[in-house]
Structures are given as structure tokens and as C-alpha cells.
Design goal:
Blueprint: H1 2-10, H2 12-28, H3 34-44, H4 51-60, H5 67-81, H6 94-129, H7 134-148, H8 151-165, H9 185-194, H10 196-222, H11 225-232, H12 237-243, H13 245-249, H14 251-254, H15 257-265, H16 269-274, H17 280-289, H18 293-321, H19 323-331
Helix pairs in contact: 2-18, 6-10, 7-10, 8-10, 15-18, 17-18, 18-19
Length: 332
């Protein structure tokens, strides 16, 4: 098992290197750069920009260097100093901008993932054990709703309903009196009172998908011969379900960790913008729109790394759940 885990971890190094190169190249693909955009904005305001000013600005932001040199400088600073560069737009270190929003993003992400997997697995198991019942039909209907309706639309509907019918604003993670206040017990309680709204909206689509995956996978397993034989031998139903069919049915769900993790960490950018959440998603979108190269590249690199790490994590979890996977991996 340790050999399998070690080999999977070693694959991270070349993958992260390739991802960092592709990320930097993608950020450079749009025509122009931040300085070009900045100069155009100044000229539209009536300011006169000389050629010397252009040269000085490009040198200030290291845009006078070639693409390979900028990449080498950027990745070297990340590896040796943990320095992701400086944001052009905010004129602040990228790491500061990311870390000040990452805490709230992780709070929403962790809560959403716990809610999504706990609720979805329990409902999926019950729906598979009691198929074609009122409970099963009800959650099948809500599953279709959750998969088909975009999160941002649900956010807008929830905002309209809460404000027009209840007179309560659900935007933001904090009430106005706590938005800029220092952290305290009262501010933490206020966040916990409001965090359930983005958790429900962001987690609904994932919950609906996992319910359907869990239900269909478990329905297939409980019809197999080994389950029928174990039941005939008198094995208790709960022990029978949890020890064999549920573990097998969890395999496709565990394998989705690789793509669920970065999507949740990004804070569902559109939903976060609609609900005015101070998470990393809106910051990434703003960096892309303004061609803030180092901020956008650092975000994309982080999300890509989370995808790779999530995939490796799901492989390791699958190996724990299903011995066939790790034994096959060791045999190779």
C-alpha cells in the first residue's frame, strides 16, 4: 500500500511542472497586457503618456522581459520563497490577496463538502434500499431540479424571495455591522448564521448528482449474487449493506473528489458574485478581466494543483476502500 501511495505522490512533481508551464502560457494568450490596458485607461481620461513612460511602466512590471524569462523568474520565486509575484491591479503581493480570502473560502468549502457527501450518501442509500417509494420519488425530483438549475439562478431566486417576502437580505457572509469589524465571537456567530445560504446553494447541484450516482450504483450491487447469498445466510441487513455493496458503490463517488475539490475551493465564482461573498472566486474573475497576470496565473495554478492533488487523494481513498485497486497497482 505504501508503495502504491509513494508512486502516486511521485507523479505529482512532473504534473505540477507541466501545469505551471501551461498555466503561464494560457495567461499570456490574450492580446495585449496589463500595461497596455492601463495606458489606454489613462489616455481615455485625457492624460498624455510618452514613450519613456511606457518603457518605465513595462520595466516596473517585468513586462520588458521575454515570456520564458518571466516564467523562470515567477516559478523560481514560488519554489524558493513562496512568492507568487505582485498583483498589477492591487499593487500588493499575490499571496496576501489569496490568503486573506482563502480562510472564508475554506470555511464555505469544508462545510459544503461535509453537507454534500453526508446528505447525498445517506439519501442515496435509503433510495436504493427503498426504491419506488414516495421518499425515493421526492428526492429523485429534487435531484433533477438540483442538476438542471444553475447555482447562480438559485441564488437570485433565494435573494428575491428572502428580500421580497421576508424582508431579509441574505447576501454576504456578514451583516453590515460585522463586515469590516475585527474578528470576535459575535462576528463568528454572525457568519455561522449566514453561511448556510451559500452552502445550500453551492452544494445542491453536487448533492443531487451524488444522490443519483449512489442510488444507481447501490441498486446494481444489491442485486448481485454475493449479496443475495449473504442475505440468505442470515447476515444482518445493515452489516451486509455497509460492509460490501456500499463500499463498492462509493467508488465512483470517491473518484469525483478530484474535480469537486477545486470547484468548491474556487467558491463557485458566479454564485459568489451574486451573493457578494468575499471568497477567492470573484477575485480570480476580476484578475482575468483585468489581465492581472501573476494573480490570475497563481489562482489557476492553485486550482490546477488542487485538481491533481484531489485526483491522487481519490486514488488513495479508492485503494483503501477496494483492495483490488492497490493490489493491481502493486503488481504492476
Amino acid at each position: 500500500m505504501l508503495q502504491y501511495i509513494g508512486r502516486r505522490l511521485l507523479t505529482l512533481i512532473p504534473l505540477l511542472f507541466v501545469v505551471s508551464v501551461i498555466t503561464f502560457i494560457i495567461i499570456e494568450l490574450p492580446p495585449g497586457d496589463y500595461v497596455t490596458r492601463y495606458i489606454n485607461d489613462l489616455e481615455m481620461k485625457g492624460m498624455k503618456i510618452t514613450d519613456e513612460d511606457v518603457v518605465r511602466l513595462r520595466a516596473m512590471y517585468d513586462l520588458d522581459k521575454s515570456l520564458p524569462m518571466r516564467y523562470i523568474s515567477w516559478i523560481t520565486k514560488i519554489i524558493t520563497k513562496g512568492d507568487f509575484g505582485r498583483s498589477f491591479q492591487y499593487n500588493r503581493p499575490v499571496s496576501e490577496l489569496i490568503w486573506e480570502r482563502l480562510g472564508l473560502t475554506l470555511a464555505i468549502a469544508v462545510t459544503t463538502m461535509v453537507f454534500t457527501y453526508t446528505v447525498a450518501i445517506i439519501i442515496g442509500i435509503y433510495s436504493a434500499v427503498k426504491p419506488n417509494t414516495l421518499f425515493d420519488y421526492t428526492f429523485t425530483f429534487f435531484g433533477f431540479v438540483g442538476v438542471s438549475i444553475p447555482g447562480f439562478l438559485l441564488a437570485m431566486i433565494a435573494m428575491w424571495f428572502s428580500y421580497s417576502k421576508l424582508g431579509v437580505s441574505i447576501t454576504g457572509l456578514f451583516s453590515p455591522e460585522y463586515a469590516d469589524a475585527p474578528w470576535s465571537i459575535a462576528k463568528l456567530v454572525n457568519m455561522l448564521e449566514r453561511i448556510w445560504v451559500p452552502v445550500l446553494i453551492i452544494g445542491l447541484s453536487g448533492t443531487a448528482s451524488i444522490i443519483r450516482i449512489m442510488r444507481s450504483g447501490l441498486l446494481d450491487e444489491i442485486k448481485k449474487q454475493y449479496v443475495i447469498t449473504a442475505r440468505a445466510k442470515g447476515v444482518k441487513e445493515i452489516k451486509l449493506l455497509l460492509k460490501y455493496p456500499v463500499r463498492v458503490a462509493l467508488n465512483p463517488i470517491i473518484s469525483t473528489v478530484g474535480w469537486i475539490l477545486p470547484s468548491v475551493i474556487s467558491g463557485q465564482s458566479v454564485v459568489a458574485i451574486v451573493l457578494n461573498l468575499p471568497t477567492t472566486g470573484p477575485l480570480l474573475l476580476n484578475a482575468l478581466l483585468n489581465q492581472d497576470m501573476y494573480l490570475a496565473a497563481s489562482f489557476i495554478l492553485m486550482l490546477s494543483a488542487l485538481t491533481i492533488v484531489g485526483t491522487v487523494l481519490s486514488d488513495i481513498l479508492l485503494a483503501f476502500l477496494d483492495p483490488r485497486i492497490r493490489f493491481k497497482g502493486i503488481s504492476k
